[in-house]
Amino acid sequence: MATTKMFHIRTEEAPHLAAPLSTTGIIGWMRKNLFSSIGNTVLTIIGILIAYSLIQPLIQFALIDAVWTGENREACLPKDGAHSGACWAYVKAYFPQFIYGRYPSEEVYRVNIVYALFLMLLVPLAIPGVPFKRLNALLFLIVFPIVAYFLLTGLVIGDKVVLPIVETAVWGGLLVTLVIAVTGIVASLPLGIALALGRRSKMPIIRMVSIIFIEFWRGVPLITVLFMSSVMLPLFLPEGVTFDKLLRVLIGVTLFSAAYMAEVVRGGLQAIPKGQYEGAMALGLRFWPMMYLIVLPQALKLVIPGIVNTFIGLFKDTTLVLIVGMFDLLGQIQSSFTDPTWSTPSTGHTGYLFAAMVFWCFCFGMSRYSIFMENKLHTGHKR
After folding, report:
1. For the chain, what is the mean pLDDT?
2. How far apart are CA 209 and CA 372, in angstroms?
3. Cβ atoms 198, 210 nearer than 8 A
4. Distance set, CA 294 to CA 203, 207, 300, 373 (Å)
5. Any residues with CB less than 8 A from the CB of 119 and at least 6 apart, and which?
6. Residue 6 — pLDDT band, cuts 50, 70, 90?
C-alpha cells in the first residue's frame, strides 16, 4: 500500500522570537560573567560577602549614624552608648578652609573667578566636537595662567593697588592642590616629550644630557626633591635672591613628573613602526615636521593610559607638600584636627573620608576621560 507524504511550504517569514530571558539583559550578563561555572559562582559569592563586609560599615558610618548639623563637638559625640558616625557638621564648618585655606575671606571671590575660568576653558577643550580648538587652547595655556596669577596673587600698578596682594603662604586647601597639580600636568607633558625626543636623538650631547636628567630625577624620591627645593635650594642662591616657596615646589614637581613622562612618551615612540619614519623621510619631511605631523600623534595615542596614569599619580603626590609647610587639601584637613571645638572620636575619620572622596572624584574623572579618548582615537592596536 503506497503512502502519501504531505509537505508544507511556508510562504511567509516566521515571526522573530525573543531571546530567552536567561540569556539577555542583566540576568544573561550575570550568568555569563558571574555564574558561568561552579568556580566562578563560588568566587562571586565570596566577592559579594567581602564587599558587603567593607561597604556596610562604611554606609553605616558615613550615612546612617552620621551627624549632619551642629555648632560644635557636642553634636558629634556618641550618645547613650550609640556608635559615633561621621561628623559632617565639622566638614560644613571647615569647608571654606578646605577649599581656600587661609585666603582672606573678602578676597575669596578672586579664587572663585579662577575656578570658573578654569572650568569654562577646560570643558570645551576636552569635548572633541567643540569648534575653535586652537583659540581655546591658546586661551587655556597662555592667557589663563597669566590672568590666574594676577587674580590669585594680586596686582599693583605704580602706586595704585588694583588687587590686594595675597601671599602664597596663606593659600591652602583645594586651591594649592589644584595649582600644583594643574601646573605640573600642563608643564610636564611638553617637557617630557622634549626629553623623550632628546633621549632618542642621534646627537650624543643632547642624548647624554637627556639621559642624565631623566635618570637623576627618576632615582630621587619626590620627598627629597621637595626638601631640596624648599630647604636646600635657598642655601645655594646668591645673597638677597629668594624664590617663593610655592614656586620652588612647582618647579620641583614639574621636573620630577617630566622625567617619568619622558619614559612614557619614549615607549610610544618606540612602538611606532620604522616604516612610518622611512615614509616621512621619503616625503622629504625634516625632523620636526616628521615628528609633529606623523610620529608624535601616533605615539601619544598609544600611550594615553600611561600619560593619564602619570597625571593621576602627580595629582595624588601633591599631598606630600605638607612636609615643606604647605597646606594642601589633606594638610588643611589634618591641621583642623587640632581645633578643640570639633575634637571628637569621629572627626579624624570624617576628615580623611572627605579627602578620599575629593581625590577619588578627580582621579576617577581623569580615568574615565582617558578611556573615552582611547575609544575615540584608537588606531586598531586594541586587542
Report:
1. 85
2. 36
3. yes
4. 21, 22, 11, 19
5. none
6. low
**Are 175 and 148 a contacting pair, CB within 8 Å?**
no
Of 133, 248, 114, nearest to 174 (Cα)? 114
For residues 308 and 359, what is the distance between their CA atoms, to the nearest angstrom? Answer: 15
According to the model, what pLDDT value does residue 257 have? 92
Predicted local confidence at residue 235, as pLDDT: 73
Highest average pLDDT, of 13-17, 274-278, 347-351, 379-383, comes from 347-351
CATH fit for domain 88-103+166-377, picks 1.10.3720.10, 3.40.309.10, 1.20.1070.10, 3.90.180.10 = 1.10.3720.10
Quote the DSSP letter at residue 24.
S
Predicted TM-score (pTM) of the model is: 0.84
Burial of 334 (0-12, 13-18, 19+ CB in 10 A): middle
Could you give the 3-state DSSP secondary structure of residue 6? coil
Q: Average pLDDT for residues 277-305, to the nearest whole number?
A: 85
Spatial CB neighbours of 342, under 8 Å, sequence gap ≥ 6? 72, 73, 76, 87, 90, 93, 94, 336
Distance CA 334, CA 322 (A): 10
Instruction: List, in order, residues 6 or more apart from 310 with CB less than 8 Å away.
Output: 188, 257, 260, 261, 264
- Amino acid at position 242, single letter: T
pLDDT band at 246 (very low <50, low <70, confident <90, very high): confident
CATH 1.10.3720.10 residue spans of the chain: 88-103+166-377
Query: What is the spatial distance between Cα 64 and Cα 72, in angstroms, rounded to a whole number?
Result: 20
Residue 17: the pLDDT is: 72
pLDDT of residue 118: 93
